[in-house]
């Protein structure tokens, strides 16, 4: 994804066709809320949902794997450019697609949290 440009509105503001996200989610709960939304899209496969389209893609899991590759490259390029805003934007794309992959593989955001905590 090409990242934010000056004067951009919230890049994800039109990505909730079902309108079921809470805009007041505290930042520490964002990953859980996002993962819950992803799981809901996986179950309900609503029309017009990008997330749902990843779960029903003709390429199967390769669709999300390709996205993870693309977003990783874009994050690396942003880092090489010392573009912190772009790096943040591309990293958010990357984390989102990684969580979609977790849902596909029947993993949970808690599995990631536990793995990281075990390394303390
Ligand atoms: N966090 C995200 C999120 N991050 C990135 N994306 C999508 O990931 C895609 C990234 O693809 P690209 O970078 O390739 O950009 P592109 O627009 O497809 O352009 P091209 O490269 O294909 O030309 C875009 O379609 C983004 O909209 C996301 N789509 C959804 N979410 C979350 O998922 C929720 C549910 O959204 P739906 O998927 O619409 O149900 C949203 O409310 C958000 O919270």
TrEMBL record:
Gene3D superfamilies with a match to the protein in the record: MazG-like
GO biological process, one term: L-histidine biosynthetic process
Biased composition regions of type Acidic residues, renumbered to the chain: 1-25
Main location, first listed in the record: cytoplasm
InterPro entries: HisE, PRib-ATP_PPHydrolase-like
Catalytic activity: 1-(5-phospho-beta-D-ribosyl)-ATP + H2O = 1-(5-phospho-beta-D-ribosyl)-5'-AMP + diphosphate + H(+)
The enzyme's E.C. designation: 3.6.1.31
GO molecular function terms listed in the Swiss-Prot or TrEMBL record: ATP binding; phosphoribosyl-ATP diphosphatase activity
Keywords for this protein: Amino-acid biosynthesis, ATP-binding, Cytoplasm, Histidine biosynthesis, Hydrolase, Nucleotide-binding
Family matches, as Pfam families: PRA-PH
Biological pathway: Amino-acid biosynthesis; L-histidine biosynthesis; L-histidine from 5-phospho-alpha-D-ribose 1-diphosphate: step 2/9
One GO cellular component term: cytoplasm
Localization per record: Cytoplasm
Top-level class of the enzyme under EC nomenclature: hydrolase
UniProt-annotated stretches for the region Disordered: 1-26
Similarity comment text for this entry: Belongs to the PRA-PH family.
Cited HAMAP family: HisE (MF_01020)
Protein name (Swiss-Prot/TrEMBL): Phosphoribosyl-ATP pyrophosphatase
Organism the protein comes from: Halorubrum distributum JCM 9100
Lineage: Archaea, Methanobacteriati, Methanobacteriota, Stenosarchaea group, Halobacteria
Encoding gene, per UniProt annotation: hisE
């Amino acid at each position: 994804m090409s990242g934010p440009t000056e004067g951009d509105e919230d890049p994800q503001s039109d990505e909730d066709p079902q309108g079921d996200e809470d805009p007041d989610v505290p930042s520490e709960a964002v990953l859980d809320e996002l993962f819950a939304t992803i799981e809901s899209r996986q179950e309900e496969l609503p029309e017009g949902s990008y997330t749902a389209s990843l779960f029903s893609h003709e390429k199967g899991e390769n669709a999300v794997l390709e996205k993870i590759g693309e977003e990783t490259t874009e994050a690396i390029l942003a880092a090489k450019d010392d573009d912190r805003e772009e790096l943040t934007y591309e990293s958010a794309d990357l984390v989102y697609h990684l969580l979609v992959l977790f849902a596909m593989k029947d993993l949970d955001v808690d599995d990631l949290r536990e793995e990281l905590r075990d390394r303390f």
